[in-house]
Design goal:
Blueprint lengths: L3 H6 L5 E8 L3 E9 L7 E6 L3 E3 L7 E2 L6 E4 L5 E4 L11 E5 L5 E7 L3 E8 L3 E6 L1 H5 L13 E15 L4 E10 L7 E2 L16 E5 L2 E5 L43
Antiparallel strand pairs: 1-2, 2-13, 3-12, 4-12, 4-14, 5-9, 6-7, 6-8, 8-11, 9-10, 10-13, 11-12, 15-16
Length: about 260
């Protein structure tokens, strides 16, 4: 929520929630923004800086961008239309794709897996890799790290969100591993060099504020115990009488004879 410090930078009242849900093979992001003011609207842009670790960015393919217009920041912000069914990255890339599909599949992330990206209320998708010439200019980015990462970022970039007084905005993203062992996803910045040790290993998912630990799947539950033996039959239901039955009551089944 806003406070004295935030208002010194941006003089608007706001409430913001950021929720993460970690599941066995999924990471959910949910962002909500509320304008509590009674009089003043405000506008903002939003972008999830999601970095994926990959063995070779030149072998990655991204779906869900065919036919979309994009602003190419590497070519003086010229507008183009994407004609490829799958997008690959083989040079410095910084593109804002507009009105993209709600789902992208990224192939050949760590150990040959696929990453499924589903988004809601994020109309834009940014694809970014600094390549060698721009990696040198980033203080916290290694000069030789560019081949092992790719950014596919959901956002509201090409046009701002305008929030009227008393209204709210909500958007979400789901990252889902589709095949292979565990992947590592950076939702903040920089790349990570963690490698899986086995398909049953636990996962560590970094975010912009720290690391989230995802334990390995729990073992299957033990089999249910065998059912109890059926109660003994009453002498009238059995061809074998209990040896200690008396004329009035059976002491095993406690039934009147």
């Amino acid at each position: 929520m806003d406070n004295e410090f935030t208002r010194s930078l941006w003089n608007s009242q706001f409430r913001l929630t950021y929720r993460l849900i970690l599941r066995e093979k999924e990471l959910h992001f949910n962002i909500g923004v509320y304008n509590p003011s009674r009089e003043d609207p405000f506008s903002f842009n939003l972008l999830l800086h999601t970095y994926f670790k990959v063995p070779d960015v030149r072998r990655c393919q991204i779906t869900g961008l065919h036919g979309c217009t994009f602003l190419d920041k590497t070519r003086d912000n010229q507008i183009y239309q994407e004609g490829r069914d799958v997008v690959t990255v083989c040079e410095w890339t910084d593109r804002i794709y507009q009105n993209t599909q709600p789902e992208h599949i990224i192939t050949n992330v760590v150990s040959g897996r696929k990453m499924r990206v589903q988004k809601y209320n994020f109309p834009d998708t940014v694809v970014w890799n600094p390549w060698q010439e721009k990696a040198r200019d980033i203080p916290d980015f290694g000069d030789d790290e560019f081949p092992n990462m790719i950014c596919v970022e959901s956002g509201h970039v090409s046009s701002p969100v305008v929030l009227l007084p008393g209204t709210a905005f909500e958007a979400s993203q789901i990252l889902q591993v589709q095949s292979g062992p565990t992947s590592h996803v950076n939702a903040g910045g920089g790349t990570n060099s963690l490698l899986p040790t086995s398909s049953a290993s636990s996962a560590v998912w970094p975010t912009g504020t720290g690391w989230l630990y995802m334990p390995p799947p729990p073992p299957p539950p033990p089999p249910p115990p065998p059912p109890p033996p059926p109660p003994p039959l009453h002498p009238s239901q059995s061809s074998h009488l209990h040896s200690h039955c008396v004329a009035q009551t059976c002491t095993i089944c406690s039934l009147n004879l």
